Amino acid sequence: MSSLHNRIRVFRAEHRMSQAELARAIGVSRKTISTIEVGRFVPSTVIALKIARHFEVPVEDIFQLSDGE
Amino acid sequence: MNDQPNRAELLDRINTLMATGALPFAALLVLDALADAGVDSTLVTVLDWAAKGALAVVVVLLSVAVARKARSGKPAGDEDSYSATTLRKALAASWVATFVVLTQFDSLFDGAGILGVAELPLVHAGEILTAFMLVVLSLTYFGLMALASDEPDPSEEGS
User: Fold this and answer.
1) At what angle do helices B82-103 and B122-147 cross, to 10 degrees?
2) What residue ranges do the domains of chain B occupy?
3) B80: phi then psi, degrees, rounded to nearest 5
């Protein structure tokens, strides 16, 4: 079964951003960011694209799908 | 840093407020049914009006929410959060649980059924079912929110 991994925490650290700052920048709540980071909440395409746009990278750099193979 | 909550945080709080408000509303409905069964006319009158008032508040709030949503004409952007997704799951769970109870309605509420409540008037059965639905909604919401433990953001500590 495929699972979604993300590197939001890494990108936040590189940009010295807190969860709250990233949340405010893309217009979501901090809880939403924290649950995406730990993999509990699978974000919508819109949120994924907003995060990627904020860090100015392709969305695949932040979100990766692993097939568990 | 700006401590003012953004719109998304406010929407999260509204979702939590809805789930919280479901509990006292459920309690009010159950108390109303119990008071009616206990034939305390003063208490029945007070609780009847309280239940009607609470229902009116819910209807007004839902109407305002639906009207604002229809006027904005935006796609589901506002629901794009963990809190909103959790509320939708809780609503679905409460609907399913109530449906299951309804399928057993006869055996639960009719005559000397499982609950042992003989001749429970339909209006009270309705109140109890509504209260049950609200309690399931609230507990599911807070259960799922608690599962996603909101640990403090390490990058914010000491900043």
Assistant:
1) 140
2) 7-147
3) -85, 65
- For range B38-47, the mean pLDDT: 70
- CB contacts, 8 Å: B157 with chain A: none
Residues of B in contact with A23 (CB under 8 A): 6, 8-9
> B78: nearest CA in chain A?
A28
Give per-residue pLDDT as tens, B51-76. 777 777 777 777 776 776 666 655 54
Phi, psi of A65, deg, nearest 5? -100, 120
Domains along chain A with CATH numbers: 3-59 (1.10.260.40)
- In B, minimum Cα distance to A27 occurs at B8
The per-residue pLDDT for range A26-40, each reduced to its tens digit, is: 999 999 999 999 989
Instruction: Say whether pLDDT at A41 is over 80.
Output: yes
**A18 in reach of chain B (CB within 8 A):** yes
Which residues of chain A are within 8 Å of residue B81 when distances are taken between CB atoms? 28-29, 31-32
In this structure, are residues A61 and A36 in contact, taking their beta carbons and an 8 Å threshold? Answer: no
If you count residue pairs, one on A and one on B, with CB atoms under 8 Å apart, how many are there?
Answer: 67
pLDDT tens for each residue of A5-15: 999 999 999 99
